[in-house]
Amino acid sequence: MSGSLALDISPGTSALERLLSVVRRRGFHVDALQAVRNHHKNRSLTVELTVSGERSVEVLSRHLSNLADCRLVAVHADSECSARRAS
Amino acid sequence: MTGAELLLRSLEAEGVEKIWGYPGGAIMPVYDALLDSPIRHYLTRHEQGAAFAAQGYARSTGEVGVCMATSGPGATNLVTGIADAYLDSVPLVAITGQVPRHLIGTDAFQEVDMLGITLPIVKHSYLVTEPESIPQVVRQAFATAREGRPGPVVIDLPKDVAQAEVPGLPEAGLPEKCAPAIGLFGAPSAATPPDPPGADGLADATELLRASQRPVIYAGGGVEKGAAVDALRRFVAGTGIPVVHTLHGLGGIASDHPLFLGMLGMHGTRAANHAVQECDLLVAIGVRFDDRATGKLSEFAPEARVIHLDIDAAELGKLRVPHAAVRGDLRLALDALERSLDIEPWRQQCREWKQRWQWRYDAPFDEVYAPAMLRQLSQQAPSGSFVVCDVGQHQMWVAQHWCFEHPRQHLTSGGLGTMGFGLPAAIGVQIAHPEATVLNVTGDGSILMNVQELATIRRYNLPVKIVVLDNSALGMVRQWQECFFDNRESEVDLSDNPDFAEVARAFGIPALAIDRTQQVAGALDLLLESRGPMLLHVHIDRQANVWPLVPAGANNSQMIETSQASQSKPVTASL
Question: Of B16, B4, B49, B32, whose CA–CA distance to B454 is shortest?
Fold first, then answer.
């Protein structure tokens, strides 16, 4: 199962490291990654991530939403598309 | 004002009154500032003891526990306690000293990357790089630790940040105290409440409840964490649905409730596991479908549709896809669910199973039979007592045989399964509840993992009652080697144990040792009547096992109650 996620993460210490740690631990490989500093939105990072693994990308997105650094996670898996604001 | 002073002022603003810790080089500025702070510091004799004592405080109060250590080994000694808090969703803030900023990354003395080490076992972590940010970091750390699904947060504080002068921060600059989202024993607070449950999920759940003929409630630690114990009890009373609990759910409904079938899973009761395997609807409340509870997941509750209620969206569908998923405030969700069910034949069936497979305590031998002794202890202990376990056979015997009143009175390391948890956690519980009876039930393997904390008990004269069940072995591992490794014992023999009563006395703690059933009643009387701390050393049968047992990888209907290799007393030691 593979999917793409779009994330908006805060510029805090280790935010990207924390994000990738969750992806690995929840059983996914990173197939592609692009991170761009957004100078117009509080210097947050906009991350485009393509992952593959045996588990549900939707569930992965919920784990990522739990990160304090994560402001928005959107999932694009096949035709499925959903967005979740981190709580 | 220094950064260290600002840290303590910020902690005070969060309502922190107690900290457990151990000083050292990089954290010395904070310890110096502590001398002028109203915060009471409790010195443990190992940093792991500090982490678990803070957990004991947190688990028994619902407040955030705080522990502190220096950089390097001090910090890494906290790691097991932090991981334990993460796995069991315990609100904890761990403050660690760090080498000065200019030395970070240079392999300086006592430098470790604490932020990196703890990344996968915290809800969040901070490396404080600017002294002025301390109040904001502390405010965010406490909010993160306590909100939603609770968990640990690390604040790593470089020494020079703690020493830095912060130019006159006014009172207004300190953060306002964040009240806990959920107060003690479920009392709501003024803080931001959890999200309300979704209407769609509730509607789906109601449909499933109406259609069900054989429902079972599978309730876990999330019930207590979500302050939903009363709501669960109302739901059970209103629906009459039989209940099984996970290890952390125990006490959600009282152990003597007629609808309570027992703990499910690997060491669950036959009635609980049977009911779950036969049910047509599983109402999963605050649970995570842990493998110790479910057994072989693909064969868990095979005929059941599933309603899953949880505060954490990441748990919904993580291991079993529910037919109705309800995320949000468990109290509101439970109160909103359908009540009128027509399931009396199923209730009767569950009652029959419970009656047929009830526990027996009529051991015909002279050695102390641990399940019977623990049952007796729980019945004799005053209402409101806390039982704090370690990890191993004794932990499962407590889970099976204790009379639980409320989940918060049962502290056990469930997720990480950390031997050595019990004694220091009991310290935190006793400090949080000085008038309560606090019982630490431990094993001969577990107690030596943090035995140094007997000195902490003595130093603060904490009346913790310690019961050491000594089978001269690492009992649970020995049992598994007996059952699944052809009885080939490998490194489980502890026949050279010290005399634990003498060990306790060496720390200034009164102690008593027993090895016969007829000594139990008198010993428990002495233990419970003692005004200060006391240790009861109980010698038990080395071959005693915990039954029933679902082998790893089997489904929960495949319980075994004796092993072919076992020569122990299978009849009385089983259901």
Answer: B49
Read off the pLDDT of each residue in B84-92 and give the average, rounded to a whole number: 98
Residues of A with CB below 8 A from B313's CB?
Answer: 62, 65-66, 84, 87
Q: Which domain holds residue A58?
A: 2-75
Question: Which amino acid would we find at residue B275?
Answer: A
Fold of B370-539: Rossmann fold (3.40.50)
Q: Where does residue B281 fall: left (phi above 0), alpha (psi -120 to 50 degrees), or beta otherwise?
A: beta
CATH number of the structural domain B3-186: 3.40.50.970
pLDDT band at B193 (very low <50, low <70, confident <90, very high): confident
Its sign, for the CA torsion B512, B514, B520, B521, is negative
The total number of residues shown for chain B amounts to 575
pLDDT tens across B202-257, in order? 999 999 999 999 999 999 999 999 999 999 999 999 999 999 999 999 999 999 99
Contact A68 B127 (CB under 8 A): no
Please list, in sequence order, all residues whose beta carbon lies within 8 angstroms of the beta carbon of residue B242, skipping any fewer than 6 positions away: B215, B216, B217, B259, B260, B261, B275, B346, B347, B350
CATH of domain B199-356: 3.40.50.1220
C-beta atoms surrounding B490 within 10 Å: 10
Q: Nearest residue of B to residue A69 by CA position?
A: B124
| Number of separate domains in chain A | 1
